[in-house]
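Journal club prep — side note

Before the paper discussion, L.F. wants everyone to see what a predicted structure for a comparable chain looks like in token form. Sequence:
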Amino acid sequence: MPRAATTSDSFNAVAEPRRRDILNFLAPAERPVGDIVVELGFPQPSVSKHLRVLLDVGLVEVRRDGRQAFYRTNAEAIKPVHEWTSRFERYWRRQLTRVKDRAEQQSKRSEKNSAQRRQP
């Protein structure tokens, strides 16, 4: 089965790690392309290509000020990705809580056994 195009939806677009890096960088504030290039260390043509994909699926928006373009994340478009991944976050949180509880129980048993061995 052929892989879906990266521009087909948000999920395919964020499958590329550099695009996730760009989204993370843009999350706090809008930035010009030059800032993205400098901060992330990606070549300018690569940043422009990735921004085009993110724009096409609606994950980022652009504002022009003269000749300069400022990019920002589109929180509403990212929401479906966040909602989907949060299901897995809840699962892993429960799993980690179970591991923590089991480790604490084992630690208490070990302490109890150690204390019993020390008694004359």
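L.F.'s comment for the group: Residues 75-118 form the longest helix (44 residues). Keep this in mind when we get to the figures.
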